[in-house]
Design a protein that fits this description.
Distance between the termini: 82 Å
Number of strands: 57
Subcellular location: Cell projection, Cilium, Flagellum; Cytoplasm
Shape: elongated
Oligomer: single chain
Helix content: under 10%
Subunit structure: Microtubule inner protein component of sperm flagellar doublet microtubules. Interacts with BRCA2. Interacts with the CCT chaperonin complex. Interacts with HSP70. Interacts with AK8. Interacts with CFAP45. Interacts with DNAI1. Interacts with IQDC.
Number of helices: 1
Keywords: Cell projection, Cilium, Cytoplasm, Flagellum, Repeat, WD repeat
Protein name: Cilia- and flagella-associated protein 52
Family: Belongs to the CFAP52 family.
Strand content: over 45%
Largest sheet: 9 strands, mixed
């Protein structure tokens, strides 16, 4: 009788680490539910930080480039970037139902910025450099009503947009040598525009804010100063009031009282990237270098006194408080009257209390793709991820980052914990193998030039005596690891492409390597020879040994998961995991009953190993999923994607797996003791001792790290450059006289 097909359940995430901080003003907060709304790939994420929950709204065909939420929280508007020659969509969503209620595709390639006008009357969107138009979308009729070029021929592109607070028919656009005030005439379906007079000043504006009374506007420039303009609006036909015009009041910097007049003006490094207008004329300013300042105007000094100032930027702002965050600031979001969310382009969210001036790091995630995920041996409380410039250790229970090890300008291809938990071994694309301590992140040893084109895969033996690495050039190398010395044991050459995955069997006698050339090779580690080869018409992305070591599991770019026999390399079974995209990674639980697969179709699938059925599926990722790891307890697993997000998934209880083999009565013969001779401890450590060597161990990382705290460590350079020698022959290591050798 055939086995019944198991029911496929929807997998639920326990925690989601993910945010896209590179979108300008991309992080918003819902005014009623207080949920954070931000773009993540081609989806809109709605996250509740208090409950640690997150959901997605899908509908865009490519990455979201701008986002806005209406004042009442009823609607969400978003725009996307597309490939050259294609249209960029603008979509209006209903927040309660999470469904699309209107869209248009009138922009070319990219939607640069988007906003709701006052009273939720219109949605204004501006196109990127390939489009250059302003489009007004009527929310009442859910249709666009007018379109006009955003810039004049002598000015640059519009980069940001800001509506008035009290009048729904007026808005402001700013950008590269561009600052214009607009009015909407709904009956005639027209737009009237007036350029703001900036005198002789030329700026590139990155952000803009308008005060509550719609009298003044503050703009942050790439020069590092604040431009203040008077609006003098609002007249429907003339934009500004008759007989008046909008113009500049001045370009302001911060005052440095320690310097003499004429040199006492400081500008912001890398420009002003975010602004917020507070009560009492104070400003919260975020700079491109991560500087956050609370400033106020020097009202005791009249502006007319700066007419003879030698610099175009006047020191009219006084710094009240200051702090610094990591990365370029992209968004300011006011959560409560005294608390602000600060988002940076390194995908981090901070909470700043402007009264007590306490800065707290709330959320972190990788800024780029997560290349590898791993758990320690028999310890599910923490896991490690490898990404751009960093290795990060996360807590599964606290749902936060514990340790960050930074190696600038390089990518970590793979990371593994030593089985005794005393070290973290990693391989990098600069060709160096680095090992770190698990608590302080200190560099233990580094093996330079391990692979001449960079490392791409890593596997560690259970004894910790040797490690196996794979390179982009296609070689597999075995290294002997000793406390004070690391030696190359052998080089295994058979592949003709980059090594994508390595795995060692539980006896430490075989290692299997997967390659993009369509072959997987099983190597004998003791004899340094090839034992078996399996080939398929695909690019293998991941390979796994079954816990007993009798079968292997592979996946590749053809979307198939294949079972192979280790003894003779025979194909046992094929599973169609995806019809259109590749399967990028596999991970199996400790018992071998279930495994998880992830792919470029954004889906995470949980499989029954014996029946080959999908028993669970999850679709919470917003971009291609390229890494996965099953926890040692079998109750959770973690997946990572190309946008830097991580998701911890809960495995249903019926799929936790059973011990293999099942627990049963066991009996061991007593070991006879030799008479007359005391037991002498062996001098050679077999690597199977239960107690690890004294020192740092991964078990103590949670105790050593306070709650809501992150330890960030920078890795020192592995090779110092030697100074140029005084001797002409010393630089080439040549000894001209043989007698001096």
């Amino acid at each position: 009788m055939a086995n019944p097909i198991k029911e496929c359940k929807q997998l639920t995430p326990l925690a989601i680490f993910g945010i896209n901080g590179k979108v300008e003003n991309g992080v918003r907060q819902h005014p009623v539910t207080r949920a954070a709304i931000f773009p993540l790939g081609n989806k809109i994420a709605i996250a509740d930080f208090a409950k640690n929950t997150q959901e997605f709204v899908a509908g865009h065909t490519n990455s979201i480039s701008c986002l806005d939420v209406s004042k009442s929280g009823k609607y969400i508007a978003s725009g996307q970037i597309n490939h050259m020659g294609f249209r960029g969509y603008v979509i209006v969503w209903d927040y309660e139902s999470r469904k699309e209620i209107g869209r248009h595709d009138l922009h070319k390639v990219k939607v640069q910025a988007i906003c709701f006008t006052a009273e939720e009357r219109f949605v204004i969107s501006i196109g990127g450099k390939d489009d250059g138009s302003v489009i007004v979308f009527d929310v009442q009729t859910f249709s666009p009503i007018c379109r006009q070029a955003a810039s004049r021929a002598i000015s640059g592109n519009a980069l940001t947009i800001r509506p008035m607070h009290n009048n729904p028919y007026f808005f402001l656009t700013a950008g590269d040598r561009h600052l214009r005030l607009w009015s909407i005439v709904r009956e005639q379906k027209k737009l009237y525009v007036q350029d703001v007079h900036l005198a002789s000043k030329t700026r590139t504006f990155y952000c803009a804010r308008i005060d509550k009374k719609d009298e003044f506007a503050y703009l942050g420039s790439g020069t590092g100063d604040i431009i203040k303009i008077v609006l003098n609006c609002c007249d429907r036909d003339n934009v500004t009031r008759p007989g008046t015009t909008s113009g500049i009041l001045g370009a302001f910097g911060t005052h440095n009282p320690r310097k003499p007049t004429g040199r006492d003006c400081n500008r912001y490094v890398n420009g002003v990237r975010a602004l917020y207008v507070l009560e009492g004329g104070r400003l919260l300013i975020g700079a491109g270098d991560g500087e956050v300042q609370l400033v106020e105007e020097r009202t005791e000094v009249p502006l007319i006194n700066f007419r003879d100032y030698p610099e175009p930027t006047w020191p009219y702002l006084r710094v009240v408080k200051r702090t610094r965050v990591s990365g370029r600031i992209s968004s300011f979001v006011r959560s409560t009257p005294e608390k602000f969310y600060i988002c940076t382009d390194t995908n981090e969210i901070y909470m700043l209390n402007i009264n007590s001036w306490i800065l707290k790091l709330l959320r972190t995630c990788h800024a780029k793709a997560v290349y590898f995920i791993t758990f320690p041996k028999n310890y599910a409380a923490v896991f490690a991820t490898a990404g751009h410039e960093s290795i990060r250790i996360w807590s599964s229970n606290r749902k936060q980052e514990l340790l960050r090890i930074m190696v600038y300008n390089f990518n970590c291809a793979a990371v593994r914990f030593a089985h005794d938990g005393t070290s973290i071994v990693s391989v990098w694309n600069d060709g160096i193998i680095r090992a770190f301590t698990p608590i302080t992140g200190r560099l233990i040893y580094a093996i330079p030039n391990a692979h001449n084109k960079g490392c791409s895969a890593l596997a560690i033996a259970s004894t910790g005596r040797f490690i196996v690495t794979g390179g982009i050039e296609g070689q597999v190398r075995v290294w002997k690891i000793e406390p004070y010395r690391q030696n190359l044991v052998g080089v295994l050459k058979d592949h003709s492409g980059p090594i994508t995955s390595l795995d060692i069997n539980y006896l430490d006698t075989e290692v299997i390597s997967a390659c993009t050339d369509g072959s997987c090779v099983i190597w004998d580690i003791n004899r340094m020879t090839r034992k078996q080869v399996v080939t398929a018409n695909t690019q293998f992305m991941s390979v796994l040994y079954f816990p007993t070591g009798v079968q292997i599991l592979t996946c590749g770019s053809d979307g198939r998961i294949i079972y192979w026999m280790v003894y003779n390399g025979a194909l046992i079974r094929e599973l169609a995991a995806s019809k259109k995209s590749s399967v990028n990674c596999l991970s199996m639980n400790a018992t071998g009953d279930y495994f998880v697969s992830v792919g470029s179709d954004l889906q995470v699938k949980l499989w029954d190993y014996n029946s080959g059925d999908v028993v669970g599926i999850g679709s919470e990722h917003a971009s291609s999923v390229i890494s996965a790891a099953y926890s040692p307890c079998g109750k959770t697993f973690v997946t990572g994607s190309t946008d830097g997000s991580l998701i911890i998934w809960e495995v249903p209880e019926e799929h936790w797996g059973s011990p293999n083999p099942p627990d049963g009565p066991s009996y061991q013969l007593p070991k006879p003791q030799p008479k007359g001779k005391p037991a002498v401890q062996s001098r050679v450590d077999s690597g199977t001792r239960l107690k690890p060597a004294p020192g740092e161990n991964i078990n103590g990382l949670l105790k050593a790290t306070p709650k809501d705290d992150i330890c960030c460590v920078e890795c020192p350079p592995c090779a110092k450059k030697e100074g140029k020698a005084a001797d002409a022959f010393a630089e080439c290591k040549i000894v001209p006289d043989v007698r001096k050798c």
